Structures are given as structure tokens and as C-alpha cells.
Amino acid sequence: MGIGFLGVGFLGTVTSWVLISFFGRRTIYSTGLASLAVILFIIGILDCVPNYEQRPSVIWAQSSMMVIWNFAYNLSVGPVCFVILCECSATKLRGKTIAIATAVQAMFGIVMTVAIPYMINPDAGNMRGKLGFFFGSLATFCFVWTYFRVPETKGRTYEELDIMFEKNVPTRSFKGYKIV
């Protein structure tokens, strides 16, 4: 299952390269977050089925949903976040912005790498698939934040983006904004 999980993730990432040329970054990112939230809530709900341990079909359904989640993540949020990060940072501060974002991501990655086994472990948190509720809530929060704060950068030059940020154009208006 592990190799299949990685293969599906790789396929999602490669497919995202094609997707990004046809759809906007904001569209892919927000649709991906919404999809991830739904999948995570389904995983959490499946964990609440009575007599969970005696129902292998429910456990297989959860495992399958994790594979689908991995594909959806690598198709959307995973690679597109780096595109948005690079395109939205100010030209003069781009290197520093990317460095800070990468450091913060690594820090949270370390925290989650340590915390998740304790949250899943039957001798500790014993949350199992109910972690889907936790991460689904985080994805929902990020979706709302994305709706208000992430601009559409497809088809824009760095100069145009800098001008729109200087003029305080609302991020939801970036797609149709005409630069005079």
C-alpha cells in the first residue's frame, strides 16, 4: 500500500503541472482545499461507525479515502502552494519570503511528525481516523482564509502583481482587474 500511496501522489503532482496551465492558481488551490476537507470529514465519520474494529470494509474504505486524499493533495494544494508563494511575494523580497515560508513549513512538519503518532496511538490519544475531523477543520479554516486572501495570479506579470498589491486591489478582484 505504501508504494501505491507514493505512486498516486507522484501521479497527482505530474498531473498538476498540466492542470496549472489551464486553470488559475486560486481556483486549483481553493478547490483542492475544499476537496481535502470533505475527504477528511468522510474519514472521520467512517471512524465513528459502531463496531469499527469488526468491520474490515470500513477500515478499507478509510484506507482508500487516504489514497484519494493523497492524490487530491498532490494534484492541488501540494504543488500549487509553491507557485502561489513565488508569484505573490514582492519582487524585492521574494528570496526572503520563500526562505521564511520554507522554514515555517519545516517547523510545522516537524511538530506534526512528532504529534501525529501520539494522536493515533491507542496508548495515547487513540484518535485513529477521528483525526480527519481535526485536519478537516484545519482545511476548512484554510479554505475560508484562501477565499479572502489568496489572489489569482495566472496570466499576470510580476510587475502587474506588484502594482495591484500597491493599489490594495482586493485579492478576489485580481483576476478581472485592468491595469491602466
From TrEMBL:
TM annotation in the entry: 6-23, 28-46, 66-86, 98-119, 131-148
Keyword Acyltransferase: no
Pfam families membership: Sugar_tr
GO MF annotation terms: carbohydrate:proton symporter activity
Cellular component GO terms, alphabetical: membrane
Keywords: Membrane, Transmembrane, Transmembrane helix
Topological type in the membrane: Multi-pass membrane protein
Family: Belongs to the major facilitator superfamily. Sugar transporter (TC 2.A.1.1) family.
Name of protein: Major facilitator superfamily (MFS) profile domain-containing protein
Species annotation: Polytolypa hystricis (strain UAMH7299)
Lineage: Eukaryota, Fungi, Dikarya, Ascomycota, Pezizomycotina
